[in-house]
Amino acid sequence: MRLVILDFQTSEGKEREDEINDNLAGIYRAMKKHPSAMANARKTCSIWQAEGNESDHYMINPNSEGTPVIVYCDMSTSPATMVLEHDHMDTKSLVGPRCDFEACVRSGPFSYFSGSKDRLLEIISASRSCQQHVRYDCFNSGMDFTRWTTPDDRTRSYWGGYPKGEYSETRCGCFLTGQCTNGQLCNCNNGINFDNQWHVDEGYIVSETSTTSATELPVMEVAFGRFPLVKGCPTAPRHDNSINDASGLGHVAGDVVNYTCSEGYESEGSNIVSLTCRGDGSWESKTISCQRVNCGDPGTSNNTNRALNGTRYGDTVSYTCTSAYKYESGDRTRTCGANGTWTGQILTCQPGLVAFDARGTGSSYWNRAGAVKFIDDLNIGDAYSRVTGLFTAPFQGLYHFESHLQRYGSYTVYCFIRVNNVRLRVIEVDPYSSYPGRGSASLNVQLNKGDTVYVDNRGTGYHIRFNTFDSSFSGLLIQHGDGNN
């Protein structure tokens, strides 16, 4: 990796960098598309070397798991050296304003051609040792505070040739020998290097491959800056339900961090709020308020019950069919999504089974005038009420009803089956009847929604035997609708 830091760059230089990266990327794309290359892998570059191969790109798979990866095997060393190539292999010119007042130049994330970061770390962990050569040349560019990031986003300030460690200042290999320009920590942060001369810092960053500690390599990003008079800001503030583009390398005065609402959240004002690191080392104070997206009313349909706990992102609505109705289509539970719409479809219900079977309460007799209040053992559709003794039609249809009554002692039974208070059937048992004290009646009738049917006791002088088994009232739906649909 070679980085050239300067205050200008020609278009020809930029085109050359792009051409080199395109050529390397093309090699990797071609090998990945070639079936024989993907199927032909070795555990390490050393095995390819032992088989008599020359330096080139090869497939390796150190743990025999996952997809093989492409690396460059340098056969000029013994054992062979595995090289992980990336898009900063050649000279990379980074251009920016003079950095006297802010850390203004970043390399951008490195893209390693071999594979994902996790796959690279697997390869490195299987290696005996790992090192990465870095070099940067500076020309009229102050780079007092140079940082690079590890695969797990830790910030490091030691450079090629300097031992691993956590340091508050940039340190380079020349400092160990006392040969840095003007006695500084690195050649490119000598403090007076706007002198129309090139300065260079280079060497190997060495990382152990122990299983007990995280590897420092490969380098994932580099940032340069000279800001001796500029204060740094603490970590960018966090705001609920938002994300930001803060750099893991930190920020100094003049840096701007942009905030946007997290998925499923929205701002009442601007979609993007920016905070600036101020000259005193504090962040600009602004209100960043992200509220859950509002999906609005989820709606409902006829013959459904709805339980709604809110209309914002993550809230839910539950539907159930009302009494005497059953599931037809749609979703019983819907959720307000991040895009501001409800998942699924509104539940719809269709007429279901209606049936009831009611009996006496267990007392000796019933002699109150009006609707006889039987106790229901079966009540599908909840159309019968033991409180009122009335059956109420939940929808239009043809229904069947019947009642069986037994007299109490020598008393007379004189009752009616009424529909909307109109007498349609009579049940009469007098004490002189030769029948065994029991009378019955049945009825098939077309009802509209809301019509009522009940057994009516004519008066207090009439006694119905009302223990558990002797008297009953039952009904059921024969067909929904008016019989023609």
UniProtKB/TrEMBL annotation:
CDD domains: CCP
Glycoprotein found in the keyword field: no
Protein keywords: Disulfide bond, Repeat, Signal, Sushi
Name of this protein: Uncharacterized protein
Record-annotated Sushi domain positions: 231-292, 293-351
Keyword Signal attached: yes
Organism: Owenia fusiformis
Ranges of residues in domain C1q: 349-484
SUPFAM superfamilies documented for this protein: Complement control module/SCR domain (SSF57535), TNF-like (SSF49842)
A Pfam family of this chain: C1q
